[in-house]
């Protein structure tokens, strides 16, 4: 006989597992902070799809750190789905074998490290294209607001915009002891309005800002390379933001305090790093 509530049954079993694992430290829907790791181990299963997001700008840093500390023998091969790789812990889970697959919009501050992981064979990423058809948000008054193809409300989008089109991918070339990888991120253009049907952001004089009321598209490249000299020695290097391209003008987020600048690479510029590893 067909079971039509398998997802509900699975959810119930996991909640029961959490109750058994946490015991008295679980009070209603509250869990002591030092028991969050046990909670994650009780409710997560190998191969689960996990969306790790926080409230507005917080990036779920507490949960990200807790996930890194779970036992990889119990929780592994997770499929991580998140908008931006902002914290080291977002990639630590791959180093520890807790996660093995990743879907993301852009690599953010962890772009260079992501390229290093690809070059070391710890994480495999292909090409991905995303088209956002709709981003409807309940306005709390019985209506909805459409944020697709707009700059969006920063409390909803972290000020990274909601363009129709995004793409990312990697290209890797390996020849003997030499391996070179690049991470490519593309963001499409969009009008500089907060919501669909809204007015364009303006200058102090009331003129559209930018003049054509559009934030241009932007593409970045991060390059990493590795050379295994012998069994003990390996040298590696990274060029982050390879082409050092000036990003499109974005008056909404540049200079805004505690928000993610849309194309922050423009402030950082091209960045080089190099190192060596010695195995004993």
Structure in a nutshell:
The chain is of the alpha+beta class and 280 residues long.
What does this structure look like?
- The chain has 280 residues and is of the alpha+beta class.
- The protein has a domain at 21-106.
- The protein contains 7 helices and 15 strands.
- It has a 6-stranded antiparallel beta sheet with strand order 6-9-10-13-14-15, with helices on one face. The chain has a 3-stranded parallel beta sheet with strand order 3-4-5, covered by helices on one side. The protein has a two-stranded antiparallel sheet with strand order 1-2.
- Strand 13 (218-228) and strand 14 form a beta hairpin.
- The radius of gyration is 22 Å and the shape is flat.
- The model has no long low-confidence stretch (mean pLDDT 82).
Biggest beta sheet summary: 6 strands, antiparallel
Shape: flat
Structural class: alpha+beta
Instruction: Please provide the count of β strands.
Output: 15
Estimate the mean pLDDT confidence.
82
Task: Give the helix level as a range of percent.
Answer: 10-25%
Order of adjacent strands in the largest pleated sheet: 6-9-10-13-14-15
- Radius of gyration (CA) equals 22 Å
Helix/strand order: HEEHEHEHEHEEEHEEEEEEHE
> Which segments are poorly predicted (pLDDT under 50) over 5 or more consecutive residues?
none
Number of helices: 7
Give the percentage of residues in beta strands: 25-35%
Query: What oligomeric state do these chains adopt?
Result: single chain
